[in-house]
Structure formats: C-alpha cells, structure tokens
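lol so apparently i was supposed to do this last week
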Amino acid sequence: MDKHLIRGGNPLYGEVKISGAKNSVLPILAACLLTDQNVRLSNIPHLNDVTTTMELLGQMGVKLTVQEDLSIEINAKEVNNFYAPYKLVRTMRASILVLGPLVTKYGQARVSLPGGCAIGHRPVDFHVLGLRKMGADIDVKNGYIDASVKGRLKGAELSFDVVSVTGTENLMMAAVLAEGTTVIKNAAREPEVCDLANFLNSLGAQISGFGTSTIVIDGVDALSGGSYRVLPDRVETGTYLVAAAMTGGKITAKNTSPDLLTVVLEKLEEAGANISFGKDWITLDMRKERPKAVNFTTEPYPGFPTDMQAQFLALNTIASGKGEITETIFENRFMHAQELRRMGANIKLSGNKAYSVGAPHLTGAQVMATDLRASASLVLAGLVARGQTLVDRIYHIDRGYECIEEKLAQLGADIKRIPDASSI
Ligand code: EPZ
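anyway here it is w/ EPZ bound
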C-alpha cells in the first residue's frame, strides 16, 4: 500500500489549482443514466472514486470516453443491466446514487447495500423509504436492494427526518422522470446538490427550490443531452487553506469559488489568517503567525461542513489555546484523534466532542489513515511536525484529493509518495 513520507517544517507558499468537486461529479455521473443523449462533462477531478463510478456505469453498458482535455463524453443509450455489485459498492458508498436513476428510467435496479463505513453506520433507509413512497417495490435482503416499478414512479411529498445529501440527490433524480410533482422537504442545501440540480435542468429537467430546504421537481417524459462544467471542490480548497494556516505560509487557491466555503473562511479568519478573494480565487496569508484555536459544531450546509472537521482538529493541535469541536453529522468521525495523539497532540474525546489544548509542536510518527478526511488531517499534521511522518493506507486520500503530493510539493512541502516504505 502506498504511503506518504513527509518532513515537516516548511511553510507553504505559492498557487494551487483546485480540481472539480468529488461530491458533485459522483451524482452527476450517475444522473447521466437518465438520458439517452450524449453528455459531455468538464472540470472532472482525476480521483479513484471517479474511476470507480465510471467502471460501475461502464459495466451497465454506459459508453464513457475520456477526451484529450480530460473531459468525459458519456452516452447511456445502451444500458443493458441494472446492477451495482457489492465489489464496487463496498469501495465507494456513493454507488448508491445509481439507484434512483435506474428505477425511474428503467423500472428496475439491483444495488448492493453500501455496508459499513469507518465514520459511521451510514444507513440508506431514507433513499429506500422515498422510492417506496414514489411507488417502487423494494426488497432489501442478502445485502442487496432489489427495486422495481410497473410503469413510471409517481411524484410524492417526501420529507427527511435528518438532512441527507445523497438521499436528497437520489430522490431528486428519481423524481425528474416520475409522473407528476415531487416535493422534498428538509432537503440538503449543499452546493453539490445545487450543482446536480443545475446539471439536470440543463438537460431539460424541471427542478426549483434547490439550495433551500424544499425542492420541487415536476416530472418530464425525457431528458436531452448537453455539456456541463462541474463545480470546484470546496473541501479540497479548505484543506489547502488550512495547510497554509498551519504552516504559517501564504497561498492562493485558484479555479475555486469563495462563496462555497464562507463559514470555513470565517473560521480561518478567527484563527488569525488574513483572507482576500475574488470571483475564482482565495488568498490566505498567515504571515508566519501561529494560528489561534477555534471552536465549532458541524452542521448541514450552510453550517460548518463535517468534511472540514478533521482538518481543523489538526490545526487546533498546534494552535495557541484550547479548542472545542462538536461533530453532529456522523457518530464516529474522530478516528484521526488517536493518530494525532501519537504525534504529540493533546486531544480529549468525550461523546461527540473533541477538546484540544494546542501544543508548541507535533513530532513526526508512523500513522494510519482511516477515512478520506482523516487521512488529509494526518498529512496536514505531518507538514508541521518535527522530523518525518509516514502516513499509511493513503488509498483513502486518493479517493478525494487529486495529485495531493504534487500540489503540496509545488507549494514547498517536503512530501513524497513511496510504494512501500519500511517504518521510520
Ligand atoms: C455526503 O455523504 C458526502 N458524500 C459526505 O462526504 C459528507 O460527509 C456527507 O454527505 C455530509 O455532508 C457524497 O456526497 C458522495 P448524508 P452522505 O446522507 O450523503 C444519516 C467526503 O468526505 N442518514 O448526508 O452519505 C447518516 O448516517 C464524504 O467527501 C441516515 O440515517 O451523508 C448521517 O448521520 C464523507 N439514513 C447523516 O444522515 C439515510 O438514508 C448525514 O448523512 C441517509 C443518511
């Protein structure tokens, strides 16, 4: 398994180009199942999760061609099987996003349950309940969801007890070709949900209210083709900005969108960073200062994003003062804490809270990534730790960060990927 070997102590300086959003491109790729016409997607990040989704669609009969400019040409006219096997779904939970499109377009789907995940139980009951309310017959047994509907799904009034991003996305896609109107209450408001809605509307769907907690979808008979540029990745952006803040440097994130991460930028200013931005760039200048610890509670958008929690806990471990972080979205999203402690961090966990006392420095160690954002936080800690840090199982990172060691190295970090390093 590949590892990252990092020698800490270099402040980051320079420019980093932000890639397309992982959590936008995954539902948008699944949504291509809804039309028989050609679709062209650009600003696609080169990530393992994207490759996995392309493999999943390909084995259904979808034609996918990567162009020289790295955009993807997609055609789902010849889809001939409606099956998402466990071997693909277990590596990427977002495979559940093919369920809604398959049932509404083809009247059938056999999709593996995603199974366990490091950060929490993460059931998909809302996805199933919503489709049942729209008229699908669904059996959940032997680890699979078997769904079918005679004729078309029917529009319905759906409401989520808990805000669910992919739950909202799955049911919004199912509603696009359903008969009549669907209203989704307590819908997710994430920018990636809006990106999916904008993409679907560009193909002729009739979706309104996205970005608020009530989305209305008027079903149409068919969608056209088109081309679409995927949103920039707000979590990748935030991760590099936190890296600059932790190392006391100054970087500019380009090809991004500041209004996607307002709350994160406010938190970085609270930590003492000087932030400036324009339409598609953000500059963070830490002026060699040590960051101040911050407190926050993760919430659905527009609240503080859970996907930035691990990165800010890493910042708090070397910041001045005490920090308190409350994680309300997932029940087990502090696994990076014990790895950070091995680097000398002073973190106490109690229930869904992480209390930190900033240490003057961390010490490099051999640590293990457990999930995507936890691994990012270990890399950030390695950038500031004294000595060498070896981060194992970085296949987690490869799922959500395009060329992370190249991007960090060109900002001045001492980081390299090693195929199989011995312990340090
Ligand atoms: C999406 O996951 C993101 N993934 C996650 O990003 C992100 O952390 C999460 O939303 C929250 O923002 C993608 O978009 C591909 P949820 P999702 O359904 O949709 C519970 C990353 O690092 N729930 O919004 O799976 C669930 O257990 C990843 O990029 C149910 O109980 O998350 C959780 O506690 C990690 N039943 C809460 O809702 C359901 O049917 C929110 O989960 C669905 C969800």
